[in-house]
Amino acid sequence: MSVLYIAMPVALLISAIFVLAFVRQVNSGQLDDLETPPRRMLYDDSDLVVGNESRQRK
Amino acid sequence: LIDSVHAEQFCCTGCRAAWQLINACGLGVFYHMVDAAGDKRPGSLRTRGDRRFEEFDHVESLGRCAKGPNDLAKAQLRITGIHCSACVWLLEKLPTMVRGVVRAHVNWSKSTVTVVWHPEQVQLSSVAETLNRLGYSPSLYRDDRDDDHRALENRRQLIQIGIAAAAAGNNMLIATALYLGMFSHMSADIETLMRIASCVVGLVSFLGPGRVFLRGAVNAVRTWTPHMDLPIALALAIGTTVGFVNTVRGTGEIYFDSLSVLICLLLIGRWIQFRQQTRAADAVALLYKLTPRRARKLVNGKTVEVFADELIPDDLASIRPGDLIPADGTVIEGVSSVDESILTGESRAVQRQFGHSVAAGTMNVDGFLTIRVTAAASETRIHQVMKLVEEAGAKKPAIVLWANRIGGYFVLIVMGLSLITLLIWLQFDPSRATDRVVAVLVVSCPCALAMATPLAISVALGRLARHRILVKSGDVLQSMIDPGMIWLDKTGTLTSGKMRVQSWNGDKHWIPIVAEVERNFDHPIANALVEFANEVNPLLGAHPKDVHDIKLAAGGVVATAGVHRLLIGNRLLLESFGVVVGRDWLTLESRILRKHRSPIWIAIENEIAAVASLGDTIRLDSYALVRKLKRWGWKVGILSGDHNEVVESVARELEIEKFMGGLSPEQKLSFVNSSLQDGATVMVGDGVNDGAALAAATVGIAVDGGAEASLSAAPVYLARSGLTGICDLITVAIATKKALQLNFVVSITYNIFGVGLAMIGVLGPLFAAILMPLSSVTVIALSLNTARRSMDRCNPSYTQGNL
Q1: ipTM score here?
Q2: For residue range B363-381, what is the model confidence (pLDDT) as tens digits?
Q3: Helices marked H in B682-803
Q4: Which of B107, B162, B190 sits opposite A4 (nearest CB)?
Q5: Mean per-residue pLDDT for B202-220?
Q6: Chain A residues close to B92, C-beta within 8 Å
Q7: Amino acid B9: pLDDT
Q8: Strand pairing partners for B74?
Q9: Which residues contact B423 (CB under 8 A, 6 or more apart)?
Q10: Rounded-to-5 percentages of helix, strand, coil across chain A
């Protein structure tokens, strides 16, 4: 079980890294607006081109 | 416009212009998206062709404009008319529509679009013009530091929650290992490692995110006010200290798992509350941001551009068509229609001429106006209303405060009980004393109580929102439980607020011809007459009548129908054209007037042909609402700005005893204030017209009207037509109260048993740790469930009541 002496600090270190990642995410403004991005991703640019062409063919 | 050759049909030229623009830019697929999004509203896109946008080019002086790299300029515009996801897509395609625009970024929740453009290639005014042609009316955003401040505060809180949640999660894992270790005989050195790890994580959580509670507690002690942070901070401090000491000593309980979870949950609760307040503040700030920054002041006959805030009373300001009015004032020159929808929610523009007063923030639509300023900057009506709303918004939801306070005392009692437990067990069996104390502390964790109250409220608010009743703060629910005084506005609330032809006395033959004339005007009376004609004969529009020379005259309209002169209007019009009103007609007129309706005369040459009686109609659901409110024990009254006689007839019709007519908004406010002294007062009205009264009342309910203006003034906005929402609101409030009481009873019972058992030693720390989350789950499930079943009981009786 002595492996825990290494595993434990490593685990805590990894969680610290993720917390830091989260902090950076927040500070870069990614979580400021939670309502527009889910709508923006509904329409992919490549899909649009296809949609446009199929319309013209009609 | 209806053209059978093309597949596309349009309701108006505005829609067609928008369609042509979108298609010309190769973005026609937008319409497929709109269909796919299931939103049937693109037809409501409005364009105002003649709006001017020159002021957009002064954006550099407006503050919110940053010079980016490569000489790019950036500005934030507020957009009205974003309905669906497809709108987001279309707006962000601006770079393909306007050359020189580099990027457009939509923020849905704030209804803004951030535009980045090359100043050499394109002016912001042409960007704004394109937006306007698309039907998204743009306005400039005023510089507002509060906005950035709130965004930063939001980020700060999110980071704190992130750290606290990570600490809580890790500590739970470590705690699980420790508990399991009790059974599997964990070796002592590993146990020590675990405890040290738990201690480190716990200290991070306590000294990082947990500091905010310590700060609150210190402030509470300094000012000698009981505060929820005080017992929490005490519990955190004692728990951490004892836990730390025990970690160092190597024996005894450490409490870091419970403490980390507590910190995390409390922070989440706070953040939710903060978000709600931000939303409310946003709506208010909106009004401020829409008042113009610049004004054109008249000095010795010349116009000078000044900042709107620099205007002082008695200054003269000139307002071009399409401009926003910079200050409150009186018109001294010019005639124009003014769109006051931001203030009143009335979508039709109102005619303003010499002597009329105009309000800051409203839009001058079609003529030049010169006004004498009566109030500017922070003295304007729009600012006064905002101030009231801001004051109201600063208060915290009382029900949450109450739960916090109870939670606080609860913690104090628990601390006391654990102290007693400690003292008693130290005398009988010192070796088991810590065990008992920990069991008491763990089993009585007040998280269930602390979380259940905000949760029950947010469930209720969510449920109401789905029924298109928007509630800004949880306080409303509590105030609506016990019956009090409810004041209803008349026009637009109890009545439909629309003129309708109630009866037509005379020759029916003239109805279509009158309609043909009135079709040319956009006025409540004209619309009522046209609508009436359509009701009488829907096929009317198909056979155009021979009318020409249509002219406005004082009090009505003059036209030539065939060869005859046709007069439509009030008595003044008839008299000015020398038409004699006979005795029979006079008795008819007095009968119409007694019913508090307006007579509109139709005269051919010098003979009266007919008289139409026009009036406002009472909404069907008003009857049922009043009856229902009375049955529930509410006192009902009417406060109206309309003539006293009209109000009286409506009150009699609805069997309401208390009514006051002819009131100014300020008088309404003082009425609400005086009835506030007798207890809870609910005010129901429309938009900012009743804004001050709505804000002052215990609960203000805005009906229909402009959503933005209404929501900023009142904590409740009924976004659906009709008044059944008020009934739903009361039902949900009562159900939520029941849910809260049930939660309270459940958690108190659980805690009394749990603490009791833990104190006498039946319940060990391990079982306590299992029971604790179970109680939270029970309470949360209860609040979710009760709120869900409360609403639909209300409506069936309504339909019975009025049809």
Answers
A1: 0.78
A2: 777 778 888 888 877 777 7
A3: 691-696, 707-713, 724-760, 765-788, 795-802
A4: B190
A5: 86
A6: 40
A7: 59
A8: B66, B116
A9: none
A10: 70, 0, 30
> What are residue B433's phi and psi, to 5 degrees?
-60, -50
**What pLDDT does residue B525 have?**
76
Out of A47-56, B134-143, B197-206, B393-402, the most confident range is B197-206
What stretch of H or E contains B89?
A: helix B85-91
- In this complex, which of B26, B109, B159 lies closest to A23 when CB atoms are compared? B159
Give every strand in the sheet of B556-561, ordered side by side. Answer: B495-506, B607-618, B598-604, B564-569, B556-561, B547-553
Question: Which residues fall within 8 angstroms of residue B449, CB to CB, at 6 or more apart?
Answer: B403, B406, B407, B410, B743, B744, B747, B779
Question: B450: pLDDT confidence band, cut at 50, 70 and 90?
Answer: low
CA distance B737 to B10: 50
pLDDT at B802: 32
Contact B33, A43 (CB under 8 A): yes
Confidence of residue B792 (pLDDT cuts 50, 70, 90): very low
pLDDT in tens, B106-145: 877 667 788 888 877 888 878 888 887 777 777 766 555 5
Cβ contacts below 8 Å, chain A against chain B, sum to 76
| Whether the Cβ atoms of residue B326 and residue B376 lie closer than 8 Å to each other | yes
Angular region, B716: left φ>0, alpha ψ -120 to 50, beta rest: beta
Instruction: Tell how many helices (H) and how many strands (E) occur in chain B.
Output: 28, 27
- Other CB atoms within a 10 A radius of the CB of residue B672 amount to 25
Sign of CA dihedral B759, B761, B764, B770: negative
Tally the C-alpha atoms within 13 A of residue A22's C-alpha that lie toward its C-beta: 18
DSSP B112-137: EEEEEE-TTT--HHHHHHHHHHHT-E
Q: Is B591 exposed, middle or buried (0-12, 13-18, 19+ CB in 10 A)?
A: middle
Pairing of strands B65-67, B73-80: antiparallel
Is the minimum CB–CB distance between B193 and chain A shorter than 8 Å?
yes
Contact at 8 Å (CB) between B75 and B87? no
The residues with which B299 forms a beta bridge, in sequence order, are: B302
Evaluate whether B634 touches B483 at the Cβ level (below 8 Å).
Answer: yes
Determine contact, residues B219/B227, Cβ cutoff 8 Å: yes
pLDDT of residue B798: 35
For residue B200, the model assigns a pLDDT of 93
DSSP string, B635-660: EEEEE-SS-HHHHHHHHHHHT--EEE
Greatest mean pLDDT among B327-331, B520-524, B775-779: B327-331
Q: Do A55 and B29 touch (CB under 8 A)?
A: yes
pLDDT band at B48 (very low <50, low <70, confident <90, very high): very low
Written as one letter, the residue type at B124 is L
Beta bridge partners of B613: B503, B599
Looking at chain B, which residue has its C-alpha nearest residue A34? B109
Roughly what angle, to the nearest 10 degrees, separates helices B511-518 and B524-536?
140
- Stated as kind and residue range, the H or E segment containing B336 is strand B336-339
Contacts of A4 in chain B (CB under 8 A): 190, 193
Cα separation, A22 vs A12, in Å, equals 15
Sheet of B363-364, strand order: B350-352, B336-339, B363-364
Give the model's pLDDT for residue B283.
52
Mean pLDDT of B658-675: 79
Shortest alpha-carbon distance between residue B29 and chain A (Å):
6
**Local confidence band at B167 (pLDDT 50, 70, 90 cut-offs):** very high
Nearest to B655 by CA among B633, B636, B642, B675: B636
Q: Which of B674, B672, B669, B692 is nearest to B682 (CA)?
A: B672
Q: H or E segment at B275?
A: helix B256-290
